[in-house]
Write a structure and sequence with these properties.
Hypothetical Protein, Haloacid Dehalogenase-like Hydrolase, Chain: A, domain 2, about 25% strand, two-stranded antiparallel ribbon, alpha+beta, about 25% helix
């Protein structure tokens, strides 16, 4: 994989909006990220305020795990207000920071 095969679809402002919205969210969610260059997938983490900050430029995707349909709908509605690229499957909502060139991605 070569990094230039990917296109950024997020910026630091959008990542900060997610961080702040999820930190203020009334439900506790856990999240993890994948690095676009190394493909490293972080451990699941529940701290949005201290652990999810500053190092946004290499986030290929962010996954947010929810426990039930009510939580899923709440998180999706929160992310829709921010207008981010992503998808929801089962108990995970994925927000994309990068997509492969020429690949279509929908917004939540």
């Amino acid at each position: 994989m070569r990094f230039y095969e990917y296109q950024s679809v997020m910026n630091d402002t959008k990542w900060e909006e997610i961080r702040n919205a999820m930190n203020d969210c009334s439900i506790n969610t856990i999240w993890r990220t994948q690095d676009v260059k190394t493909k490293y997938i972080s451990d699941w983490d529940g701290d949005w305020f201290y652990h999810f900050k500053d190092s946004y430029k290499n986030i290929e995707w962010l996954e947010i795990k929810v426990e039930n349909l009510e939580e899923k709908n709440q998180v999706i509605n929160t992310l829709r207000k921010i207008n981010v690229p992503g998808e929801a499957k089962d108990d995970v909502i994925k927000v994309y920071g990068y997509v492969q060139n020429n690949n279509f991605i929908d917004y939540l």
